[in-house]
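Priority: medium. Attachment 1 of 2:
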């Protein structure tokens, strides 16, 4: 459903094709926001800056040129005329030839070098040696001790954890896809559910993302077709990424574009970048004059203008007149318009242009666009707030229009931070201010990234939603990056989740699914870790004082297999409403407290079972070891299988909260199978023997006691707010 394409020139025509169809020798066109589709050699370039952080770790983009490389000792990433797969175009345009693709690229060779299996950890080695040592010294049967140690190591390892986590995440990804949220990185689902701060641009989330050109006026606010023509020529001739504003100008029905454009010839261009926040196109008119046409953020264009034009007359941009110009611009912004300034400059005898030529411009006027607020935005914001997610607006637009949009959707814009204020703040001060601010306006890409990192530094789980080239740094910096299917290649590549519909309502539904996934993963972690923690005490204690193995290795493995099978439906288990009502980030201290308090409870009832088997059923004699082992096997399997129903909910199990039918069914099946095993044809092969009738009522009391005590401790921990 989500794919990245490349612009390839084949048979003399440019076309978009999937990256998998690219072959060496293809000619590709690159523009700002594109992912480099393979290792390529530049044939032509114009102000091309490439982000190579994925290969080199550098935070700043590097400039690339089409000229041949002269230094032979350069490392591959230092070659100025080579761009590598896995990197992206920050600004500029280029044409390149594909040299290698896929696994044969420099990036592919790096990926191959890090594959392989991990070695056994020191914990695994230490656990094996310790259990082997205890049983070797106490039983004097080193061969039996070895196999028992191996079986215990398997039994104590939550080997189902990778499966449970993978299936939970995959099941969540499928559920989220039905909500029109596509998961690119499975492990991002948990962060999505744990998100308590969502940072987003206003365009397309709070607004319709349906930009319409409403006004084209001179500096006095009067309609001007000349300003529209200048803006149209810039949008038509630019070769970089055409945004919504460009499309709105090109779709303008106000004049016959084709007949007018034919009178002009493009000579050169200066691509847009987020430092200058403007772009220029050099054209030649019917009279042979070279004219530089510029459009961009008004406050930036103002700085590059020496004069403004009104009714055919030029006036200098002196401070007194600048006040009036700014008032006209602010008036448009206050009305909810997004405004771009248009300026021109004649460059006699010039065929090419550079950034230095963007000086001494003549301000012609403004083009103003309207992107109306979404009807669903206010409801979606309220729903996110109810679910514990606060929304912050991070935008490059000016504060006036941003404040107007926030007001229209019922979002308080106070307090507000501007990009200039963010620039001056140290990180510690920014962290405090970012927690309080709701609207951040006039931000550069670096500012957005700093705000995200500042919020994360205060302990928040931060999501960022963006779709532009300028959003890529913030998408990478966030705990979970969210983009849309219509976003630029670099934004989609940087994101963890892709929305098929740019709407906060879709996002809210995805958050709930993410929390369900996290809740089910935590169920298994709590249960598996606490159960294994308790089993460790039981195994080591019994091994120390019994004259025989407390459970045969084959019985340990059988117990573990059956118990694990009973947990398979956990990923599809139902989740209580209160467990998805608020964000739930990972809390290791919480899990540790749960293990320390709940884990030993299983050992208590293991030891009561040991007492019953030794003193009631007289199993001290090694000849009666099979009876002891069978008794503990059944009790251990029953308690471990049944306890998930207590651990899976904060309510009273079975009465206030019920598990899914699949989990209930596997619980009953495994418990019934455990009861049947000692009397089955498999009993002798597994070392089991018949249990005395008195054993079963004692087991029932043990099960009720175990579940009751666990429920009491769980409620106590909840009241203490320790879990």
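Attachment 2 of 2:
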């Amino acid at each position: 459903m989500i794919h990245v394409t490349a612009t390839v020139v084949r048979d003399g025509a440019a076309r978009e094709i999937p990256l998998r169809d690219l072959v060496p020798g293809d000619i590709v066109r690159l523009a700002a926001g594109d992912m480099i589709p393979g290792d390529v050699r530049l044939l032509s370039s114009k102000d091309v800056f490439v982000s190579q952080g994925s290969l080199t770790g550098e935070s700043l983009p590097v400039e690339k040129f089409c000229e041949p490389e002269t230094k032979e000792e350069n490392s591959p990433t230092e070659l100025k005329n080579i761009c590598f797969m896995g990197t992206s175009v920050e600004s500029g345009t280029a044409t390149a030839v594909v040299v290698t693709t896929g696994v044969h690229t420099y990036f592919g060779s790096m990926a191959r070098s890090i594959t392989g299996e991990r070695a056994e950890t020191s914990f695994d080695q230490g656990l094996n040696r310790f259990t082997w040592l205890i049983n070797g010294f106490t039983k004097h049967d080193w061969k039996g001790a070895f196999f028992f140690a191996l079986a215990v190591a398997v039994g104590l390892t939550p080997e189902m954890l990778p499966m449970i986590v993978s299936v939970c995440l995959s099941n969540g990804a499928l559920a989220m896809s039905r909500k029109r949220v596509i998961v690119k990185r499975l492990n991002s689902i948990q962060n999505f559910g744990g998100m308590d701060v969502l940072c987003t641009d206003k365009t397309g989330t709070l607004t319709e993302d349906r930009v319409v050109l409403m006004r084209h006026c001179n500096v006095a606010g009067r309609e001007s077709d000349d300003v529209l023509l200048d803006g149209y020529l810039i949008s038509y001739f630019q070769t970089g990424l055409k945004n919504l504003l460009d499309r709105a100008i090109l779709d303008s029905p106000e004049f016959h574009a084709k007949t007018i454009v034919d009178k002009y010839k493009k000579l050169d261009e200066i691509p847009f970048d987020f430092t200058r926040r403007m772009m220029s196109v050099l054209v030649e008119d019917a009279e042979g004059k070279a004219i530089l046409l510029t459009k961009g953020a008004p406050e930036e264009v103002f700085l590059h203008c020496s004069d403004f034009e009104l009714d055919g007359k030029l006036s200098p941009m002196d401070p007194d007149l600048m006040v009036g110009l700014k008032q006209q611009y602010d008036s448009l912004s206050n009305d909810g318009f997004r405004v771009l300034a248009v300026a021109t400059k004649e460059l006699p005898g010039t065929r090419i242009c550079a950034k230095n030529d963007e000086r001494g411009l003549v301000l012609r006027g403004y083009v103003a666009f309207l992107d109306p607020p979404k009807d669903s935005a206010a409801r979606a914001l309220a729903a996110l707030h109810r679910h514990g997610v606060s929304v912050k607006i991070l935008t490059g637009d000016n504060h006036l229009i941003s404040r107007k949009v926030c007001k229209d959707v019922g979002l308080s814009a106070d307090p507000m931070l501007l990009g200039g204020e963010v620039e001056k703040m140290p990180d510690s001060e920014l962290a405090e201010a970012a927690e309080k601010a709701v609207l951040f306006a006039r931000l550069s890409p670096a500012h957005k990234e700093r705000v995200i990192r500042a919020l994360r530094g205060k302990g928040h789980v931060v999501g960022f939603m963006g779709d532009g080239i300028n959003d890529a740094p913030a998408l990478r910096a966030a705990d979970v990056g969210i983009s849309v299917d219509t976003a630029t290649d670099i934004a989609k590549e940087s994101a963890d989740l892709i929305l098929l519909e740019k709407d906060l309502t879709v996002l809210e539904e995805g958050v709930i699914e993410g929390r369900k996934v996290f809740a089910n993963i935590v169920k298994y972690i709590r249960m598996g870790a606490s159960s294994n923690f308790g089993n460790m005490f039981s195994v080591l204690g019994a091994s120390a004082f019994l004259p025989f193995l407390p459970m045969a290795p084959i019985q340990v493995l059988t117990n573990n297999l059956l118990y694990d099978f009973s947990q398979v439906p956990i990923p599809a288990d139902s989740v209580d409403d209160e467990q998805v009502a608020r964000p739930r980030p990972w809390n290791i201290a919480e899990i540790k407290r749960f293990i320390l308090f709940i884990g030993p409870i299983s050992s208590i009832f293991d030891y009561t079972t040991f007492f019953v088997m030794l003193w009631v059923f007289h199993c001290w004699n090694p000849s009666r070891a099979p009876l002891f082992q069978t008794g503990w096997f059944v009790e251990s399997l029953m308690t471990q299988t049944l306890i998930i129903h207590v651990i899976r909910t904060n309510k009273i199990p079975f009465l206030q909260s019920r598990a899914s039918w699949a989990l209930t069914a596997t619980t009953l099946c495994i418990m019934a199978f455990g009861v049947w095993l000692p009397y089955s044809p498999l009993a002798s092969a597994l070392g089991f023997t018949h249990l005395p009738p008195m054993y079963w009522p004692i087991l029932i009391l043990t099960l009720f006691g175990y579940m009751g005590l666990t429920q009491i401790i769980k409620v106590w921990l909840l009241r203490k707010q320790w879990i």
